[in-house]
Amino acid sequence: MTQIIHSVSDLQKWSMEQKRQGKTVGLVPTMGFLHEGHLSLIDTAHAQGADAVAVSIFVNPTQFGPNEDFDRYPRDFEHDRILCEQHGADVIFAPEVNDMYPAAVTCWVQEEEISKGLCGKTRPIHFRGVTTVVTKLFNAALPDLAVFGQKDAQQAAIIKRMVRDLNFPIRIIVSPIVREADGLAMSSRNKYLSADERQRALTLSRSLREAKEALENGTRTDALAECDVIRQKLTASGGVVDYVEALDPETMLPVTSGSQRPVLFALACAYGTTRLIDNMKVD
Amino acid sequence: MTQIIHSVSDLQKWSMEQKRQGKTVGLVPTMGFLHEGHLSLIDTAHAQGADAVAVSIFVNPTQFGPNEDFDRYPRDFEHDRILCEQHGADVIFAPEVNDMYPAAVTCWVQEEEISKGLCGKTRPIHFRGVTTVVTKLFNAALPDLAVFGQKDAQQAAIIKRMVRDLNFPIRIIVSPIVREADGLAMSSRNKYLSADERQRALTLSRSLREAKEALENGTRTDALAECDVIRQKLTASGGVVDYVEALDPETMLPVTSGSQRPVLFALACAYGTTRLIDNMKVD
């Protein structure tokens, strides 16, 4: 039976009790509207040794810009609860906004290198909100390990950097992207897509896969030039490209040489009002 | 016997072991060169219920500006060790700079309201360094309670705000200023003062006490005007005033009305190259 906890102090008590019993606590931070990507994170937490798993479900207002989709972000708590139950989550941490932000925040956690590029350019306050709320979630759940999705590759790299720089005693695990059968990376925001947009959005994963194949089999050799190829395909599919970049997978900073290996291609592209992200690593 | 620990991971292990034994862990963060003010913080940690007390001794480079006294800040580890031993500290956490900062920090903790005024004006990166290193120390010592000195009133208020905003499961205790017999607030930096400067620096505590007496016995009634009186006395004593302010003791923001009560007078003033701070509350 998955227990539902709303307050920070109750979650702290729960976590400390688990530890007193010698259990390893795992945290899976989510914004809810769970899909198979999220569920794989819960499974990963168990597989990586968590005896007690908390899934947080919180649509965090401080990581949404004023013109973003905070209000319309999809929510379905009852469905989420059933899925958490099925995947053996011990606790759902489902705070209200007032539980997490009883007063206006004046103390922020901010990463200032990895967060500058990619999504950080078009979403200037996003990662400050993410690192701050994840710090709050870490201090609430006091986990031994926490699982994040590779779908949000920049976020995962920022969280790892945060844990390194601030000495959180937490092991960060990054779990692979889960895709629909046709290749679309799973995202709660896929729900926004019309049938037509959904079809055109397949260009994200397809263009990434084609770039990966071309570089890995040697048909083409320049990762930087490949970004232009991807960009053209996205534009041709009716997408409005935010960025397509070739990154060092460790530092998440842009590669300087087109022939550098390994490389992570990361992109953001909008169809209609729906902005999607995806990424793929080339070895 | 006080145990000396140098690495973050060893301190985390020590703290988790204390908790497994059901002990309450207390942390006293210091920059070393301990005086009776620091020792009162250790005593307070015990008095407030800490069964296992860690004293951190770390002159934190990230809270010093480029033209400040990081290099000449006084250090005397062996003396500190004896004092910690005498006051029953269980652990001294004495990391090297490389233990705390193995790589350049790109993720900072920054308070953006209380930190703007007072010392934050003349020391723009100071409090960012303080909140970041205290977060690191909290995540290293994992304390149940931590004790700070009221001498650094602005710092104590910022740390309380940080704990509130970031949900650290830590009780923050602020311990009263300890003064020399003649009134000078104890500070490791008092060592910098020449005999003459030391004498003139008594004006800090004397002018604060005179303001407190005048307002409490009704001789004078305007706290804002009292700031000018203090400023004049400091200047007359040969001090170079950085600030003298009347603050709301809760918010640490400047009071808007001269008749507001209670009020905290806080000041910073330099004699020669030595910048000193002091504060006093008027009820």
CATH architecture of the largest domain in chain A: 3-Layer(aba) Sandwich
Structural class determined from secondary elements of chain A: alpha/beta
**Domains of chain A, number:** 2
Reported by name, the CATH topology of the largest domain in chain A is: Rossmann fold
CATH class value of the largest domain in chain A: Alpha Beta
What separation lies between the terminal Cα atoms of chain A?
42 Å
Biggest interface, which chains? A-B, 32 and 31 residues
User: What helical percentage do the residues of chain A reach?
Assistant: 25-40%
Give the rounded overall mean pLDDT of chain A: 97
Largest sheet of chain A: 6 strands, parallel
CATH superfamily membership of the largest domain in chain A: HUPs
Question: Shape of chain A, please?
Answer: globular
Q: Give the oligomeric state.
A: homodimer
H-E string of chain A: EHEHEHEHEHHEHEHHHEEE
Strand order of the largest sheet of chain A: 1-4-3-2-6-7
β-sheet strand percentage of chain A: 15-25%
* Rg calculated over all Cα atoms of chain A: 19 Å
Q: Please provide the count of β strands of chain A.
A: 10
Helical stretch count of chain A? 10
Q: Low-confidence segments of chain A, ≥5 residues, pLDDT <50? A: none
Q: Which features does this protein show?
A:
6-stranded parallel beta sheet, 2 domains, 283 residues, homodimer, Rossmann fold, alpha/beta, globular, 3-stranded antiparallel beta sheet, Pantoate--beta-alanine Ligase, Chain: A,domain 2
Could you characterize the architecture of this molecule?
- Two copies of one chain form a homodimer.
- The first copy, chain A, has 283 residues and is of the alpha/beta class.
- Chain A has ten helices and ten strands.
- Chain A has helices at residues 8-20, 36-47, 77-86, 97-100, 119-122, 126-141, 153-166, 195-200, 202-216, 223-236, and strands spanning 3-5, 25-30, 52-57, 91-93, 107-111, 145-149, 171-175, 240-247, 263-271, 274-282.
- The radius of gyration of chain A is 19 Å and the shape is globular.
- Chain A binds chain B through residues 8, 12, 16, 19-20, 103, 105-114, 131-132, 135-136, 139-140, 142, 158, 161-162, 164-169, and chain B through 8, 12, 19-20, 103, 105-114, 131-132, 135-136, 139-140, 142, 158, 161-162, 164-169.
- Strand 5 of chain A pairs antiparallel with strand 5 (107-111) of chain B, so a sheet runs across the interface.
